[in-house]
Design goal:
Layout lengths: L4 E15 L10 E3 L1 H26 L2 H9 L12 H7 L14 H30 L10 H10 L6 H18 L6 H4 L9 E2 L8 E7 L2 E9 L10 E9 L9 E2 L3 E5 L2 E11 L10 E7 L3 E11 L2 E4 L4 E4 L1 H29 L8 H44 L3 E5 L19 H18 L2 E5 L16 E5 L2 E4 L3 E3 L5 E3 H15 L5 E2 L5 E2 L8 E3 L6 H5 L52 H4 L14 H5 L1 H9 L8 E2 L20
Parallel strand pairs: 10-14, 12-22, 14-15
Antiparallel strand pairs: 1-2, 1-6, 1-9, 3-8, 4-5, 5-6, 7-9, 8-9, 10-11, 11-12, 11-13, 13-23, 16-17, 16-18, 18-19, 20-21
Helix pairs in contact: 1-4, 2-4, 3-4, 4-6, 8-9, 9-10
The structure holds zinc ion.
The site of zinc ion has 7 residues, from loops.
């Protein structure tokens, strides 16, 4: 992110394909059908994948990963940053299968894919080594000492989701083998690279990117015309057009894309770069403090630094994804169910002779289950991705709207694992938080807003006003031990996440001078002292001086409506009446009509009036809130987010519609 350029990726589709000639010398160009083009890209991807998998399998050992992680070649020189060059320096180059002719550029692409997978493997190896070196007696209940030992050994920026998943993986290994694994390579097999072609590793002999106009790119690439090319005559130059999506501004620098064949089409991941000056990490006077909630994905608060004091306005900003969480829980449950079924069927199949009559039917069922499993996994992945980017967009739009120049978030790496295990599957997973963080960092950089992490320790357990320990209760009026509400002896009574967001904002604003980039380049405050937060005094209006104003401050939640006596007391019964009220008020109700439509509204006399089918007013005013509802799709119906307002505030107008990029 740091540096003079900010790189983003636009996902597009290739179309209008021609083949023949070369990029520089026009020759006879023949149009190519999309399906044929996708097949040829698929052949190239398979060639690349075959070579890359071979390199990875050959080097998948603890010793080789250690060499690559060390970053020094056999000749004592530093390894180049470029992946394929590093592998060539180490003598780990890719070789094509016997009889298959590929150019040196194609081998480079395969080496680049292999180098990326192996470098990821180096990181995983370090994580697994740290976990094994500090393996505790009970891996799922580490003591404070064990946690700090593990944190010291882990690579910077390892989040709790990774720790949990790797701990589970090692525990499963111990369960099978009865001992700890020696390292990553014993714990798992070599990774498989994706079916894609990263053209960025090649040069002008394999790929040429031309700009047609502001909105159109033409990409040239050499592709094989059969699955196993035996000479260079089986390779032809192909050109395809890519229309830039509206999110890409005009005049940006476009780089070599990555192409992926998919469903008979070719998807193009097109990186583009815009000049970027990293925002300053200190000197801020207005910032947003953000807390990772449980069901409420994000809770934020606006905070100002006024004369050394941190002042908040007391208005929480919420991105509540409870509905999406519930959907994700249902999907995960369905995935587990499919897994169980598939396991059962494969056990049945394995126990039978191969020529059993029901064998074909069983295989068909298994294939069907596998396809559905893959679809459910993809749905979960896409939903996680969509909610994460939507939340990030919402947060950055809020920061822009209120004129904040910095966003403070808890450092995911220092966020304590555990918590309430009962609700664990109800919350969005730690991986989603990681995606939200990446998305916030990216979108904030585009908007010129700094993102700084602060230590997570004690953000929810301390009082933002006095710094003392808070008590967590169920609700402000039910002082029994709970989770949602924080109360303090100093008089604080706030939503738990809102209180934490205030504390995070104060931690960030008051410790700005301690901001340092960490090893991954992310601006971070590593040690912070807490400062008390002051609530901004309410603006006094002229009317307030002339007549007494009702104290509208909310000290307790709205009381639940009591059910009418004698009514059926089912939990499913709605609290409000949904039938028209009787014309005459029932005796003893003092003439007060119960809730519900009045009889006059129910059936107006005369012909039925045709209601013109238009977009409701609310939709025009808040397109992001109801867009999904109007179209009848998307998860916007299930996400409740505080609308974004302008800096002058209070008008309810949108600064930018919530959009998913
Ligand atoms: Zn307090």
């Amino acid at each position: 992110m740091a540096g003079a350029w900010l790189t983003s990726t636009a996902t597009c589709t290739a179309y209008r394909v021609v083949c023949g000639g070369t990029p520089d010398a026009p020759g006879v160009r023949v149009p190519v059908a999309g399906r044929v083009f996708a097949e040829r890209v698929g052949w190239l991807a398979d060639l690349v994948r075959g070579m890359a998998d071979q390199v990875i399998a050959a080097q998948w050992s603890d010793a080789d990963l250690a060499v690559l992680a060390g970053g020094v070649g056999v000749d004592g020189r530093r390894l180049p940053a470029s992946g394929w060059m590093a592998l060539r320096r180490l003598g780990w180059g890719a070789v094509a299968a016997a009889g298959v002719v590929v150019s040196d550029r194609v081998r480079r692409i395969a080496e680049e894919e292999a180098a990326r997978a192996l470098r990821l493997g180096c990181h995983r190896r370090a994580v697994v080594a740290a976990l094994l070196a500090t393996w505790p007696a009970d891996p799922f209940a580490r003591t404070d000492g064990e946690w700090s030992g593990l944190r010291a050994a882990l690579p910077e920026g390892t989040d709790t989701a990774t720790i949990r998943n790797r701990t589970r993986q090692i525990t499963a290994y111990v369960g099978v083998h009865g001992r700890l694994p020696a390292g990553l390579c014993e714990l798992e097999g070599p990774p498989v690279v994706a079916r894609q072609v990263s053209l960025a590793a090649a040069d002008r002999q394999q790929v040429v990117v031309d700009r047609v106009d502001d909105r159109m790119i033409r990409v040239w690439s050499q592709l094989p015309t059969c699955a196993a090319p035996v000479s260079y005559r089986d390779w032809l130059w192909h050109a395809f057009d890519v229309a830039l999506p509206a999110s890409v501004p005009a005049g940006v620098k476009v780089c070599s894309p990555t192409v992926r064949p998919r469903d008979g089409r070719v998807r193009v991941d097109l990186p583009w770069q815009a000049p970027h000056t990293p925002p300053p990490v200190d000197g801020h006077t207005r910032g947003l403090g953000v807390d990772w909630g449980v069901n409420t994905l994000l809770t934020a608060t606006v905070a100002d630094l006024e004369g050394g004091c941190v002042v908040v306005d007391g208005r929480p900003l919420r991105f509540d994804a409870t509905g999406v969480s519930a959907k994700l829980v249902r999907l995960r449950r369905h995935r587990e169910h499919l897994n169980t079924k598939a396991d059962h069927l494969s056990r049945l199949r394995d126990g039978r002779p191969a020529d059993a009559p029901a064998e074909a039917a069983l295989a068909g069922k298994l294939a069907c289950l596998e396809a559905e499993h893959a679809a459910v996994c993809a749905r979960i992945r896409h939903l996680n991705h969509a909610v994460a980017w939507s939340a990030a967009r919402w947060l950055v739009d809020h920061a822009t709207g209120v004129g904040a120049t910095v966003v403070y978030v808890e450092n995911l790496a220092t966020l304590e694992a555990g918590g309430r295990s009962r609700s664990l599957n109800r919350r969005l997973s730690g991986a989603v938080r990681g995606t939200v963080f990446t998305a916030v960092a990216h979108l904030a950089a585009q908007a010129g807003i700094a993102v700084v992490t602060v230590p997570a320790r004690g953000t929810s357990s301390g009082c933002p006003r006095c710094g003392g320990a808070v008590t967590h209760v169920k609700t402000p009026d039910r002082c029994v031990a709970g989770y949602r509400w924080a109360i303090c002896s100093c008089g604080l009574s706030l939503d738990r996440d809102h209180a934490a967001a205030q504390r995070i904002a104060a931690r960030g604003l008051a410790n700005q001078t301690k901001t340092r980039p960490d090893r991954s380049g992310q601006a971070a405050i590593h040690a912070a002292t807490d400062t008390p937060v002051r609530r901004r005094a309410r603006r006094s209006t002229p009317a307030a001086t002339t007549r007494p104003v009702r104290d509208r401050r909310k000290t307790a939640p709205t009381r639940k409506q009591t059910r009418p006596t004698g009514a059926k007391t089912s939990r499913l019964l709605p609290l409000r009446r949904q039938v028209p009220a009787p014309t005459e008020p029932p005796p003893g109700t003092g003439g007060k009509r119960p809730a519900g439509r009045t009889p006059q509204e129910t059936n107006p006399p005369g012909p039925v009036r045709q209601v013109p089918h238009t977009v409701p007013t609310t939709a025009r005013r808040h397109p992001h809130r109801v867009r999904g509802a109007i179209l009848g799709r998307g998860f916007h119906r299930h996400v409740h987010a505080t609308p974004i307002t302008h800096q002058d505030g209070g008008t309810g107008t949108m600064s930018a519609p919530l959009r998913i990029t």
